[in-house]
């Protein structure tokens, strides 16, 4: 691999959600265990970490947590997995990162457990690492332009300026980039965080105001797999990718 080494040897995988949009498949299993193209969603993510050389994963759990922990016990491949237990209270994305922070180095990768993507010329973790600048950034988000966002039907999330700074889509307008669910995060982003459950958007808003939220455009494909209807077209795309 050319360029910078990985910015971190650890990734947090957000896997504690209730998976309501994936019902009825999540009536008896957590969303990360839903299978796409013969692999569970979380194994797709873990396999990508392994391929990139990321040694450690921290996974938060809440809904049907025992099933997820049992799944991890029978996985013998890298990365090594630690669990951040949210059984007592679901903390959302921001609160989940704050609770897991003692298990995470600075910086760390963070990704949603339902992400499926195809890498471009280099894997996404090296993509982020090559663009990372700890002096300027609280977080670096991997963004996807609409033509590379398979199954996506929304209006986008963000704009990028020429230096990669992020601004949000204005209501009533379309933004050119969709958040992939993958980011590289400094512990500085988590400072003075609210207590209890809250969205990462709270921290991103502050970082935008301070000109410290950045993004890069993913060079490969990304698949939104939020509903059962997205599974079949994703599997068809993957056979062609």
UniProtKB/TrEMBL annotation:
Keywords: Nucleotidyltransferase, Transferase. The keyword Glycoprotein does not apply. SUPFAM superfamilies: Nucleotide-diphospho-sugar transferases. The keyword Repeat does not apply. It comes from the Bacteria. GO terms for molecular function: nucleotidyltransferase activity. This is Mannose-1-phosphate guanylyltransferase. The lineage of its organism: Bacteria, Pseudomonadati, Pseudomonadota, Alphaproteobacteria, Sphingomonadales.
């Amino acid at each position: 691999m050319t360029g910078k080494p990985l910015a971190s040897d650890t990734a947090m995988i957000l896997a504690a959600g209730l998976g309501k949009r994936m019902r009825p498949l999540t009536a008896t299993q957590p969303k990360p265990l839903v299978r796409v193209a013969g692999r569970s969603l979380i194994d797709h993510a873990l396999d990508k970490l392994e391929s990139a050389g990321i040694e450690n994963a921290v996974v938060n759990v809440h809904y049907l947590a025992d099933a997820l922990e049992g799944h991890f016990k029978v996985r013998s491949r890298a990365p090594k997995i630690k669990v951040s237990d949210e059984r007592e209270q679901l903390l959302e994305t921001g609160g989940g990162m704050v609770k897991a922070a003692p298990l995470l180095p600075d910086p760390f990768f963070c990704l949603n457990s339902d992400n499926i993507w195809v890498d471009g010329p280099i894997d996404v973790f090296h993509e982020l690492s090559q663009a990372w600048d700890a002096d300027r950034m609280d977080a670096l988000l991997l963004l996807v332009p609409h033509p590379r966002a398979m199954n996506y039907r929304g209006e986008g999330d963000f704009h990028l300026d020429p230096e990669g700074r992020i601004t949000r889509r204005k209501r009533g307008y379309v933004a050119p980039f969709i958040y992939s669910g993958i980011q590289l995060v400094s512990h500085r982003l988590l400072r003075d965080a609210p207590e209890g459950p809250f969205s990462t958007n709270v921290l991103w808003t502050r970082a935008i105001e301070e000109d410290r939220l950045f993004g890069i455009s993913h060079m490969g494909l990304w698949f939104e797999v939020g509903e059962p209807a997205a599974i079949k077209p994703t599997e068809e795309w993957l056979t062609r990718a």
